[in-house]
Design brief:
alpha+beta; Heat Shock Protein 90; Rossmann fold; 7-stranded mixed sheet; 6-stranded antiparallel sheet; 48% helix; elongated; CheY-like_superfamily; transferase; Sig_transdc_His_kin-like_C; histidine kinase
Length: 680
């Protein structure tokens, strides 16, 4: 009986090798495509957010000029005398504004601020500058804000010229024109984008801003995010925005890792094909020996010895197969085990990609082995952002309450100042919010052997958002100065002796920082070794529509009479509605003179006084009122946030000062401060 291994076993092992090689190649190509998608999605997401910030910055500066225009038009030109004092204020507030000038309807520059560095343009007739005048005239008569390309200025330097047309008395009067250079404001945005490079061109291709030495030509189109910035929605100017990484090294490193992973996969394919060959050969020989032993046993007992030898040979082959299976499964399982461990550790994004590639390749190979040896596959998930309505202060209090027993059991003291202002609700990812502060509080407990843990909460409303600030301070082991700058880097904690003694589950500081960044927040750390650590987290959230609950029911100012003075009718209506909600009877006046006439006819308990008005402004009106020895409560109302304006209001006799746009809760709070007879 021949024991020659059949040739088909060789072909089967070769086929297994080819199939495995094709699978590895498929996984390699798929991983490469996924890496490119991930790379582009990362740059696209970051670039899209950044482009919105840049575009919003541009538009905010243009809107500030439109506010000047609105005042001129609403006052039929009476505001002209305040135009350049307000323009000086705007220049002080907006770093992009280089100067503001008035170009009359004939195209002649008649006024400019600041004057000294720009006086050479006074009297300049732009009608003699053909490329400038034609565009200026055409868009101005159409009522469209005009933005020139990045141009060289007569007085030196370069800037964008933004022309805001002004119409009153039913005809075109001229333009409020500003020279704008956005570099400082753009650099402020760029400080949060140190890993990236930015290039912006105007609508005729002039490069007017670059950040971190961008080199788009060194990157393929698939790794450069390009979009259009539209500085003025009403016009047709489009600026080109390029967003890319500072260099291409990361992508080259990823490509090298992919190639290495493919090589490892091919090696494992060869090992698996050998395992299959030995398995088939051993099974073939075992069957042959079993058949031979059976035949010999039937022939005579004298062949029993040969039968025993054949049986032992079969057992040897079976043991060999078992050993080979073990030898292959052991490194595969080890690779997968370490990959799973590394996935849960604090590692960099690049290293995370390496681990994922290693995990996927080894898992694919082990899955095929497990099809023969009955072992299950490994699965993984992904992160998403939720939008929940919740109270940040209430969530912080709940987390602290959850850990308070553990803190006390460890002999520690917990200090909090959390005021349960639960009426402030936001829209955001509650789960990730909880996860951030659970990680930090848990860290504080873990690394504080004695002393105290302090949790401080505060919030403030800014532009419709609730800015939440929480710091968590402990008296624990602290962090050495040599590692303080690297605590968010992945793997750093794994090398720290203290961290090893406190090893356990959790996302760690690197993941916590990623969650904070995911929620558009910031995290800062202060620490001294053996003295303690303080983490400060700031997170912005969109206020819920129900943020301020119906507090009007607790306020009753019945019998109070108010005079609302504002040259803008809509502003008067809004303020009068706010007052009406708390039972304040109110009367409106469109300017200072009208307000004085109202005061001659009846008495008022409260006056809400606008600052910038035609005929008689708020400062002058308050001076007249106080000169008549009238002690009525006067609250200034203005969008002018400068310290000088507020101090001037107090000097002329205002009792308090509110900033536009008026927040209803701020108004009610200031009334409660000055009127103590509200009913609760």
């Amino acid at each position: 009986m021949s024991l020659l291994i059949p040739r088909r076993f060789y072909w089967i092992s070769v086929m297994i090798f080819l199939v495995m090689s094709l699978l590895c190649t498929f996984l390699f190509l798929r991983a490469r495509d996924n890496l490119q998608k991930v790379y582009y999605n990362q740059i696209k997401t970051s670039g899209s957010l950044a482009s919105h910030d840049f575009e919003r910055t541009i538009r905010n500066n243009i809107i500030s000029l439109s506010n000047l225009k609105a005042r001129l038009e609403e006052s039929d030109g009476a505001f002209q005398q305040y135009l350049f004092s307000d323009a000086e204020r705007l220049i002080g507030q907006n770093e992009a504004l280089q100067f503001v000038e008035w170009i009359n309807k004939d195209g002649i520059i008649t006024d400019i601020v600041p004057l000294e560095p720009n006086k050479t343009v006074i009297g300049l007739d732009i009608s003699k500058i053909e490329y400038r005048y034609t565009n200026w005239r055409e868009k101005s008569l159409s009522g469209i804000t005009n933005i020139t390309p990045w141009v060289k200025l007569t007085q030196g330097g370069k800037a964008f010229l933004v022309d805001v047309p002004v119409f009153y008395k039913e005809e075109f009067q001229g333009t409020i024109t500003a020279g704008m250079d956005f570099k400082k404001q753009f650099d402020n945005i760029g400080r949060n984008l140190e890993e990236h490079a930015i290039l912006i061109k105007d609508d005729v291709g002039n490069v007017f801003y670059s950040f971190n030495d961008p080199q788009p030509a060194n990157f393929p189109d698939s790794r450069v995010f390009t979009t259009q910035l539209k500085p003025n929605p009403a016009s047709n100017e489009n600026w080109t925005f390029y967003f890319l990484y500072r260099d291409n090294a990361v992508y080259k490193e990823r490509t090298r890792v992919q190639n290495s992973a493919l090589g490892v996969g091919l090696i494992f394919s060869a090992l698996l094909s050998l395992l299959s060959y030995f398995f088939l050969a051993a099974r073939f020989k075992a069957k042959k020996f079993e058949s031979l032993n059976f035949s010999l046993n039937q022939l005579n007992n004298e062949l029993e010895l040969e039968k025993e030898k054949a049986f032992k040979a079969s057992q040897a082959k079976t043991q060999f197969l078992s050993n080979m299976s073990h030898e292959i499964r052991t490194p595969l399982n080890a690779i997968l085990g370490f990959a799973n461990i590394l996935k849960d550790r604090d590692i960099s994004k690049t290293e995370g990609v390496y681990v994922k590639l290693m995990h996927n390749s080894a898992n694919a190979l082990l899955s095929l082995v497990n099809d023969i040896l009955d072992i299950d596959k490994i699965e993984s998930g992904e992160i998403k952002i939720d939008h929940d309505e919740f109270s940040p202060s209430k969530r912080i209090k709940k987390i602290v309450d959850t850990y308070t027993p553990e803190i006390y059991n460890k002999g520690l003291v917990v200090e909090t100042n959390i005021e349960a202002v639960y009426k402030k609700k936001v829209i955001g990812d509650r789960s990730k919010f909880d996860q951030i502060f659970t990680n930090l509080i848990n860290n504080a407990i873990k690394f504080t052997p004695e002393g105290r843990i302090k949790v401080h909460y505060s919030d403030e409303i800014q532009d419709g958002n609730l800015i939440v600030t929480v710091f968590i301070e402990d008296t624990g082991v602290g962090i050495s100065q040599s590692k303080l700058d690297y605590i968010y880097d992945r793997f750093v904690q794994a090398e720290d002796g203290i961290r090893k003694r406190h090893a356990g589950g959790g996302l760690g500081l690197s993941i916590t920082k990623e969650l904070v960044s995911l929620l558009d927040g910031t995290i800062e750390v202060e620490s001294k070794e053996n003295e303690g650590t303080k983490f400060t987290v700031t997170l912005p959230f969109l206020l819920s529509s129900g943020t301020i609950t119906d507090e009007n029911n607790d306020l009753d100012f019945t019998g109070t009479k108010a005079l609302v003075v504002d040259d803008n009718r809509l502003n008067r209506i809004i303020l009068m509605n706010y007052l009406n909600a708390i039972h304040v009877k109110s009367v409106g006046a469109a300017n200072g003179k009208e307000a004085l006439r109202c005061l001659e006819m009846e008495d008022f308990d409260l006056i809400l006084m606008d600052i910038h008005m035609p005929q008689m402004d708020g400062f002058e009106t308050v001076s007249h009122i106080r000169s008549g020895m009238i002690e009525t409560l006067i609250i200034g109302v203005s969008a002018d946030v400068t310290r000088q304006a507020i101090e001037k209001g107090m000097r002329v006799g205002m009792d308090d000062y509110l900033l536009k746009p008026i927040n209803k809760s701020d108004l009610y709070a200031i009334l409660q401060k000055h009127f103590r007879h509200n009913k609760v």
